[in-house]
């Protein structure tokens, strides 16, 4: 039986990815803030006669909790797939700068640091053909290396786009260390809570995004590909800053340092 961990699976794109895998007979591992949030998805998988999901409570903005979640998951057995789909968008009020309990800007904390940490922690639990897929975005803006925690002139959409460049940088660095990880932009504005809250017009369906993510996750032609960025089904160039090894090194060092911070 194949096993996949999917973050952000209680709604939107993550839910569709999880249900597609369940239809294929996969067992799901679902990190969620509270177990009650996964109830509807668990019922839906049961209706598909899929294996019962494993629900693990975890606040994905809390990196100590993320490490504990990973230890719990590792104890349950090997993984064939990890899909880091959960993300924080620009917010209802894009002028509001939010942080996690360790004072790390929330979009960087959830959209870049948490996927990096999960990939590191769970890579050893992957089967020989296992893969990690980071759900990225074509919306990419360069990071200010002197303000990676985005404390100056804050704007939520910009913070989101910066975090997605950091995610690509992370994947390239992790892949160079031997971790089978890639990043995919699934589709233009899908009907997710993030897009609706941001007031963007819907341009794609959840199916559009699901197909793109699962292609990177499951296509045998991509079994040896690591550290790549995909624009839907095609390998593409990410923002140029992500291709600068010196910049990547600085950003990933910052990511790994912030991942060790605790409550302030």
From TrEMBL:
InterPro entries: NAD(P)-bd_dom_sf, SDR_fam. SUPFAM superfamilies: NAD(P)-binding Rossmann-fold domains. The keyword Oxidoreductase applies. It comes from the Bacteria. Pfam families: adh_short. The keyword Lyase does not apply. Keywords: Oxidoreductase. Belongs to the short-chain dehydrogenases/reductases (SDR) family. This is SDR family NAD(P)-dependent oxidoreductase. It comes from Streptomyces cinnabarinus.
